[in-house]
């Protein structure tokens, strides 16, 4: 990991990453309690780690994702996605009001699409995304 990414990740955890990760963990617990929604719980756990430590990593589309992921994303948006997207939006506002928080506010806004549609994507390191031809659009 690059030293700059380490510093950015530590600041991110202090300013907003911890609470956003807690939101994803709550969504994961709800997903695991309802047996049918275990795939949502798994996706939410993956995003909790990403929300906690995002710099140096990115999201890329899964080549094996199909119609099931699309249908699951529709259900996800209704059940948990919009709550998490609102959390990212609300968290970004105070970050934009401070000078040091502006980059973190933008990072929060960039996480809104993945919070709305987590199925059919995976979190990979930025180096791995550069090596693959299908590198994701949400590069940090």
From TrEMBL:
Residues 7-57, 71-120 form the Inner membrane component domain. Coiled coil: none annotated. Keywords: Membrane, Transmembrane, Transmembrane helix. The chain crosses the membrane at residues 7-26, 32-53, 65-85, 91-109. PANTHER family: INNER MEMBRANE PROTEIN YCCF (PTHR42903:SF1). This is YccF domain-containing protein. It comes from Streptomyces chilikensis.
């Amino acid at each position: 990991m690059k030293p700059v990414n380490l510093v950015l990740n530590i600041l991110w955890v202090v300013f907003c990453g911890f609470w956003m990760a807690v939101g994803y963990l709550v969504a994961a617990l709800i997903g695991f309690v309802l047996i049918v929604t275990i795939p949502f719980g798994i996706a939410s756990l993956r995003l909790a780690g990403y929300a906690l430590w995002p710099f140096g990593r990115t999201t890329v589309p899964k080549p094996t994702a199909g119609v099931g992921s699309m249908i699951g994303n529709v259900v996800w948006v209704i059940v948990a996605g919009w709550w998490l997207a609102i959390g990212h939006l609300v968290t970004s506002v105070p970050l934009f009001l401070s000078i040091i928080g502006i980059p973190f506010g933008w990072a929060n806004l960039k996480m809104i699409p993945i919070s709305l549609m987590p199925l059919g994507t995976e979190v990979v390191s930025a180096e791995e995304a550069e090596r693959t031809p299908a590198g994701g659009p949400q590069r940090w």
